[in-house]
Structure prediction request, 225 residues.
Amino acid sequence: NAGVMQNPRHLVRRRGQEARLRCSPMKGHSHVYWYRQLPEEGLKFMVYLQKENIIDESGMPKERFSAEFPKEGPSILRIQQVVRGDSAAYFCASSPGLMGGNTIYFGEGSWLTVV
Amino acid sequence: GDSVTQMEGPVTLSEEAFLTINCTYTATGYPSLFWYVQYPGEGLQLLLKATKADDKGSNKGFEATYRKETTSFHLEKGSVQVSDSAVYFCALSSGSRLTFGEGTQLTVNP
Prediction:
C-alpha cells in the first residue's frame, strides 16, 4: 500500500511564476490536508479537503493560494505569482476519515524555492 | 485557540543517555496527542500517539503519557542512539487539523 505521494519533491520558481504541487493520498483515504513548514519553524495548517470540497481553508493566505481535490486525480496546491516568502516545504497528509482518533499520514513533502 | 509548547532546542546528548523532550498543550475538549519525527530532508513520520487521558503511546523505545491534569505529553527514551538524531514535533488534533509545536532538534553524538 503506497503512502502519500507528493510531487515534485523539489521545485524552483522565479518570482512571479506559478507553482503547482500535487498530492495523491493513501489508498482508501478521502481526506487531504496541506501544511506549510517555513525554514526553522514548525508546520502550520493550511487547508483541509475532501473529494470536490474544501472543508476548512482557514490557514490559507487570502491571496495567490488555492487548493483543490477533484473527483479524479490528485489534490493540487497552487501558488500564483510566487514571492521569496513562499519558499518552504509543503506537506500533504491524508486520513481515512476526520481526524480525531484517526491517524493522518504525511507525504515526504515538496520543497519550493523561489529565486 | 489550540496551542502546543515544546521544550526549546537544540538538545545534544551522548549515545545511551536518557532523553526527555517536554511538551504541554492548550486545547478545548479532549484532543488526541502525537509525537512526529522528521529526519533531514524528509517528511514527518508518526512516532507515537495517545487518544485519551492516561494513555501511554510507545514505539521504538520512545514513550509518552497523556497527562490531562498537567496538560502534558512529554517524550522519553531511556537510551538514545545516534540514529535518533532528528527533529521531534509534538502535536494535538482537534476537529480537522493538527496543531504542531515548533519542534526540538535532537543530536546524539557517539
In short: The two ends of chain A are 36 Å apart (CA to CA). The mean pLDDT of chain A is 91. DSSP finds no helices and eleven strands in chain A.
